[in-house]
Amino acid sequence: MARVLLLVLAASLAALASSKGLPVLAPVTKDTATSLYTIPFHDGANLVLDVAGPLVWSTCDGGQPPAEIPCSSPTCLLANAYPAPGCPAPSCGSDRHDKPCTAYPYNPVTGACAAGSLFHTKFVANTTDGNKPVSKVNVGVVAACAPSKLLASLPRGSTGVAGLADSGLALPAQVASAQKVANRFLLCLPTGGLGVAIFGGGPLPWPQFTQSMDYTPLVAKGGSPAHYISLKSIKVENTRVPVSERALATGGVMLSTRLPYVLLRRDVYRPFVDAFTKALAAQPANGAPVARAVKPVAPFELCYDTKSLGNNLGGYWVPNVGLAVDGGSDWAMTGKNSMVDVKPGTACVAFVEMKGVEAGDGRAPAVILGGAQMEDFVLDFDMEKKRLGFSRLPQFTGCSSFNFAGST
Q1: Residue 386: exposed, middle, or buried by beta-carbon count in 10 A (0-12, 13-18, 19+)?
Q2: Domains of the chain: residue spans and CATH
Q3: What stretches of 106-262 show up as alpha helix (H) in DSSP?
Q4: What would you report as the CA-atom Rg of the chain, rounded to the nearest whole angstrom?
Q5: Per-residue pLDDT reduced to its tens digit, 168-205
Q6: pLDDT in tens, 92-123
């Protein structure tokens, strides 16, 4: 019953697409120090993108009055629909009809949370017709106020977090409500330079490219607003890793921008490491250089001398990794997505074992895909049709090809 109520409340804040509404576009920047992604929000403020976050929050300087939102209101219920682990349980108490709403913004990197009031702010960006910016727009947004200590471990200069999850007060739902566009966003995370986020769907340039996207269902996981998909199998160089579909289904596959690498539950990680190591050792027979292992750099287990890896159009010359998703398509990763540079001369396989999680524990995802695995893809998070579209950018094409937010 509570789930139904939340869906009804979310629907009231996220209007269906209108022919008069235009999508809203913002540039995305990758912070080299933290590997997190930010968008400009307003007046020089930058917010960190959290694809699993249910709220928009930022620090308040005291000059921003709290919104007059009662604790018992539907908006307050949405603000507290997905409490973060370790945060206080929201409660209105006996004076619920008079008490103002308190939310609990959450730092996705440190796991810290803090109590804060809700306030009205604005998201300043450009509308787009798919070819060029049309006009600047101020999108009204309800956000949570947070103390400055909650910014720990976030990029320098950022003032908060923009949640992109499937929740009523995440940024996509609020833009959909204000602009009368679809509750949908497209994301292209850059390896360097500028990326782009487009709220409200298309149109996009290059329709022949974006219309040929592969799609897989978005899967709801009880108690979480994060975006999940289902995997049928994992392949290394077209050879299936010996992990059952049932094991992958237990806990599901979560998408995250707070990590620059993949986390695998132990029952998935060990078979993957064995398969990757075997495939890498077999590559010299096909003309690849002999990869020289070096001392691991935490949290990674498999690290190599970059001079011994060689390069091709897909990045480092390492075995390709394919994720066979529900729907029949493969999320294909070359060395550009499966390796991370950790220091000069050393690159590591960007797959890490989850800590503190038992093999087969369905309370944790089987796989968490990180930012590096989403970079240089165009991703279509369609919450209305409950599906995720994905398509790799062509060679020599970056996310900036979709970013026309620089001029108004």
Answers
A1: exposed
A2: 24-201 (2.40.70.10), 208-392 (2.40.70.10)
A3: 171-179, 207-210, 245-249
A4: 21
A5: 999 999 999 999 999 999 999 998 889 999 999 777 66
A6: 876 555 788 999 999 999 999 999 999 999 99
